[in-house]
Amino acid sequence: MHISPLPDQLSQTLQPYAGQRLCVGFSGGLDSSVLLHLLAQLAPVVGFQLSALHVHHGLSAQADDWAAHCERVAASLGVPLVVRRVSVARAGKGLEAAARAARHAALAEQDCDWIVLAHHRGDQAETLLHRLMRGTGVQGAAGMRAVDVARRLLRPLLDVPRAELLAWAQQAGIVWIEDDSNTDQRFTRNFLRHDILPRLDQRQHGVEANLARAAGLFAESADLLDALAAEDLQRLQFGQPGSRSALRALGAPRARNLLRHLLAQAGEGAPTAERLGETLEQLSSAAAVRLPFARIALCAWRDALWQEPVALPSPPHSLLWCGEAVLPWAGGELRFVPASGPEALRIVPNGACRIQPRQGGEQLRVEPAAPQRDFKTLAQAAGLAPWQRDVLPCLWQGEHLLWIGALGADAAARCAPGEAGWQLSWQPAVCSTSATRPAAAAGTAK
């Protein structure tokens, strides 16, 4: 009798995950059934904790029966199972893509160290063909990764042909679900699986293994491009003066590679070639530009590039200051500290002090001998991009403008030596992205 090497191979693969919590994405089909049975055997041997998740899409009349089957199988193996019901929102996607997105969202929410999926070598070959049909680049042609750290995904069967999984299941007497939709060739993946790949294999035997090997080679190239982009990003000093000129100096292919890497780091989906080209053109040449994506905005102003959260903070219409030490402002904080001398301002917390965004026409004389300067001139001198200026707090006492956060204070309002007053500072909202925007001055009364 043939003895499958699968258990021993899987045991070696999973040794690094001893002591960790593994959750199998369990559909009840052949592939995930084999994976769950194997991991249930290996859990006490290797020493990992095992659970499973069944995602109930509600797309089939048999969905409830499938969930019940998965519950029975998991119970027989002593594996804790969660059945998660999801709504599949098309939102412009095909049914396959929408269901996959809902499934991965449910898996990502699991309280575990790793999600373990049953993708095999045939799935990898299909993925490569599917992406090539859509004009993918090197990153997409890399296919699925056996270990995807960013998404906590493990695919320990990725090098195993499906025929080997079938043989093991039959030998072990496993009962699994057959989903009729898996043979519906209106879906591109099914068309590739049941029509194209068999015909390609007739022309050149072993094409599935060759495609999977090609995906591995593309993955090596993708990793090298990522390493190059990380070096370029460090060299550019993203967020600092000169970073824009440095991007131009890279040349278009290398600059596009850097932008792809930057967007991927921020959790953005891969942009189309057209969108990427337009983004590079505007970041390279537009006078001032803020390009919003789903999570971040890429910005360029003068000779600096940076990224910041896509949603800009909104300041309140107006606030009265009555002596509070801290007031909230546009996601950040205004701080008022008792002080004396020229570092402080001569203001009285009597309810006549208000803070509001700019209204237009604001002017300040920040040095005693200097002329008054308008808001735009001060903001340009401070290096603030146009869209960063609308959130600046302006402190008025009656009809007298005393201070603008990040820009300065009225010289006539400064305290004399030894005179008591208040020192003001504004701490803007913290940028949570990995590459920071240029830091504006905190906006003290200095």
TrEMBL record:
CDD domains named in the record: TilS_N
UniProt keyword terms in alphabetical order: ATP-binding, Cytoplasm, Ligase, Nucleotide-binding, tRNA processing
Residue ranges occupied by any Lysidine-tRNA(Ile) synthetase C-terminal domain in the UniProt entry: 353-426
Statement: the UniProt record of this protein carries the keyword Cytoplasm: yes
Known catalytic reactions: cytidine(34) in tRNA(Ile2) + L-lysine + ATP = lysidine(34) in tRNA(Ile2) + AMP + diphosphate + H(+)
Residues binding ATP: 27-32
Localisation per UniProt entry: Cytoplasm
Free-text function comment from the UniProt entry: Ligates lysine onto the cytidine present at position 34 of the AUA codon-specific tRNA(Ile) that contains the anticodon CAU, in an ATP-dependent manner. Cytidine is converted to lysidine, thus changing the amino acid specificity of the tRNA from methionine to isoleucine.
Family: Belongs to the tRNA(Ile)-lysidine synthase family.
Protein name: tRNA(Ile)-lysidine synthase
Gene: tilS
